[in-house]
Design goal:
By secondary structure, the protein is an alpha/beta fold. It contains 13 helices and five strands. It is globular and about 75 Å long. The model has no long low-confidence stretch (mean pLDDT 84).
Length: 286
């Protein structure tokens, strides 16, 4: 397995220190992994022994073994399928072929959700979001707020105290931090071109002891450094635009866990909401 894939596979299991190292390596891969151990430690704000323990968790005995594996990848990359694809990408495929490429890549990205580290991260996220005493806040950015609103819409059918923190003017969203309590959970969606507003919001929320569940891409938002649960997903496609499809599927997997966890409680709430909606929309229903 390639070093990058190895790091991505273990992302949900990393400590905050390991996460900082991983994010730095992934952001500038492969160059970031080929410098000195002291430089990597300094840029990650950890000690050199922490970096050594990090590479051992990945299965390498020494840091030099870790670097040797990266160098072999770089040497091999000139003839990799990806390199060949980029070399000939000027030859646009026919529409049907383009769709097949996109669907095939999407299937591979979705398959990664079944890997054990991601499954465990989803389990931990469901445990937090399913706590009866917790109030749940959903946060997204300019693009990812669509995922946050989708999650809130679905989650409201299963439990109460679900709040969407959409971008607002005049600091109204930031003012909600004043109402956060220790048992509350903030579910944040933050993907590459990470938004400073989202990062700052999460940092301030964390200072009030809020638990954070983060959906992010494989390069990791800086919020991963402080999140209690990190769920990394793929946003790349064969098209020029990123996709939320995998993030939404991971969200659906989280919701499915909550349905099982809440059981009859969720069923009763859905029945109650259905009755309320009918009464609110039809004056003849009492």
């Amino acid at each position: 397995m390639r070093v990058r894939s190895l790091i991505e596979q273990h992302l949900p299991e990393f400590s905050s220190s390991d996460t900082r190292i991983a994010r730095l390596i992934l952001e500038r891969y492969p160059v970031s992994g080929l410098g000195g151990i002291e430089d990597l430690a300094r840029q990650s704000d950890v000690s050199p022994p922490t970096v050594t323990r990090f590479v051992k968790r990945l299965g390498f005995q020494r840091f030099v073994d870790f670097q040797r594996a990266i160098r072999l990848e770089v040497q091999d990359s000139e003839s990799s399928p990806l390199a060949l694809f980029k070399k000939h990408q000027g030859k646009m495929p026919k529409s049907a072929h383009a769709d097949r490429l996109m669907v095939d890549q999407m299937a591979r990205s979705l398959q990664k959700l079944l890997e054990a580290p991601v499954q465990r991260a989803l389990d931990r996220a469901a445990a937090l979001v399913g706590e009866a005493r917790a109030r749940i806040y959903m946060l997204g950015g300019r693009w990812s707020s669509a995922a946050a609103q989708y999650a809130a819409f679905q989650l409201t059918s299963l439990r109460g105290e679900v709040h969407v923190l959409v971008p607002q003017a005049s600091g109204l969203r930031e003012d909600r931090i004043a109402d956060f309590r220790r048992n509350d959970v903030l579910v944040a969606y933050d993907f590459r071109r990470y938004q400073p507003e989202t990062i700052a919001f999460c940092q301030t929320a964390k200072s009030r002891n809020v638990r954070i569940v983060l959906f992010t891409d494989l390069e990791l938002s800086p919020v991963a450094d402080i999140a209690d649960v990190v769920i990394p997903v793929t946003v790349e496609t064969t098209t020029p635009t990123d996709t939320l499809a995998v993030a939404l599927t991971a969200t659906d997997a989280l919701l499915a866990r909550l349905v099982r966890k809440l059981g009859s409680q969720a069923t009763k709430r859905m029945a109650m909401l259905d009755q309320i909606r009918r009464q609110a929309s039809d004056p003849n229903v009492h």
